[in-house]
Amino acid sequence: MTKKLFGLVSLLCACLFFFSFSTTAHAEKTYQIGTDVTYPPFEFANKDNQYIGIDIDLLKAIAKEENFKVEIKPVGFNAAVQSLQSGQLDGIMAGMAMTDERKVKFDFSDPYYKTGFVMAVAKDSKITKLEQLRGKRVAIKTGTAAGEYAMSLKDKYGFTTVTFDDSDNMYNDVVNGNSVACFEDVPVMQYAIKTGTALKIVTKPARGGYYGFAVMKGQNQELLKKFNAGLAKIKQNGEYKKIVDRYLSSETVAAQKDAKKDGNSERTFFGLLKQNRQALLKGLGETLYLTVVGIICATIFGVIIGLLGILPNKFAQGFSTTVIYIFRGLPLLVLALFIYNGLPSLTGVKIPAFVAGVITLMLNEGAYTAAFVKGGIEAVDKGQMEAARSLGLPFGTAMRKVILPQGLKIMVPSFVNQFIITLKDTSILSIIGILELTQTGKIIIARNLEGFKVWTIIALIYLIIITLLTWLSNYVQKKMK
Ligand code: ASN
After folding, report:
1. To 5 degrees, how large is the angle CA 424–CA 427–CA 431?
2. Domain assignment of residue 357, yes or no
3. Domain check: are 227 and 362 in the same one?
4. CA–CA separation, 85 and 216 (whole Å)
5. Which terminus of the chain faces fewer neighbouring Cβ atoms within 10 Å, N or C?
6. Local confidence band at 97 (pLDDT 50, 70, 90 cut-offs)
7. 106 with 169, same domain?
8. Atom from ligand 1 closest to the CA of residue 39
């Protein structure tokens, strides 16, 4: 029995590796490019939750020109930088300033857009100079060059900082008066103000520079070459100008401004639901898919580890206890980041986000499953095993015929419970950029800033699904009795 179980564990691991390698092999033909969640006019989601913007259109035009394929991953700027470093992404196109510090770690393309850092304050604010920031709070965005610039001024001007993962939340903090100022790139800040964000720029652009497309130093050089060649071509044939003009045109600006306005019929609860129906359904589909695949893997893994724990073999028991201890002890978020960002930087092998998500669920939820499987079997009266053995049944048969059927009954509620927990836990996997329900919500809010209404919709969807699942499980349990 021990051997069989170990065989099964190896088989499960082999399947997962095969799955991950095959998806990777497939993905390698297409370059994976990270971008920001929302950084208009360079990247943002349109009404249909499709990514558009100067960066996106330039990249697509260049890819077409140079015959390569890209898959765009709107994971957020800081997450993109980390994923590029761990080898999960091939490049970043995210309004990324080519700073000297970054040039040590990354290779940049030829410059494609002029930038510089500015300070913005609320529309009605009296602050016009850095000197007025003393003792005040300033909002910055995680991992950005403008944020670094603000940090370099912090001691001299005596202000404190608070960090946000995306630009919109940073602006909001200033609009709402929690912070007195924020630091942002000049083309992005100007665009946000033009499209209705209630801020104003009060400083001249500092540390002027350019945006570039980035790859890891010494890697993906052929991609960089193609990018540069394509960029030169689209600059020459007028495509570059067309793209930039399209986003800076008064029509696009007016449309963006309109989308931000309150009282817009599309901003009511039902308006939002209707407008984002497609995206929400897709997100929900991904959540359910992740849950089902995750729970299947977790159940197989958990049952095997749980059974190893009750074998009359010290090594098997120790192994089971250790696995449960480690994977139940680690926070799900840490485990997901470790598998998605940590492992690839060690092994050099990419793991697609979905596969990383499933492995995370398998290990974490599987550890809980193993614990209750072990507990369920141990809860069966010891006398049962002794009686079966004294009747001459071998350990394996006694386990299968006598103990497991009784143990299983004890475990059923825990299985159902674990299913519901897994569904909820998938939301944490939005951190690695899986476009499930929670990540879908983040992207919708990045576009329309309707945090309260959109999170209410997302919460309701989770609650409805969980209620349905609970009903189903009660029904199944009744039937089983
Ligand atoms: N402009 C930022 C930087 O260069 C990147 C961003 O916020 N998308 O750091």
Report:
1. 150
2. yes
3. no
4. 7
5. C
6. very high
7. no
8. 8
Residue nearest to atom 5 of ligand 1 (CA): 96
Q: Does the Cβ of 182 fall within 6 Å of ligand 1?
A: no
State the CATH number of the domain containing residue 154.
3.40.190.10
- Mean pLDDT for the stretch of residues 46-59: 91
Tell which residue, 43, 93, 86, 46, has the closest CA to residue 70: 93
- Ligand 1 atom at minimum distance from 148 CA: 9
- Whether the model clears a pTM of 0.85, i.e. scores above it, the answer is no
Full domain range(s) for residue 373 = 274-480
Q: Is 94 in the pocket of ligand 1 (CB under 6 A)?
A: yes
pLDDT band, residue 26 (cuts 50/70/90): very low
pLDDT digits (tens, 9 = 90+) for 251-277: 888 888 877 775 566 678 898 999 899
Confidence of residue 80 (pLDDT cuts 50, 70, 90): very high
Query: Does residue 436 share a domain with residue 344?
Result: yes
CA distance 255 to 395: 72
List Cα–Cα distances, 83 to 87, 91, 187, 201, 479, in angstroms.
Answer: 6, 9, 26, 32, 48
What is the tally of structural domains in the chain?
Answer: 3
Give, rounded to a whole angstrom, the gap between the first and last alpha carbons of the chain.
30
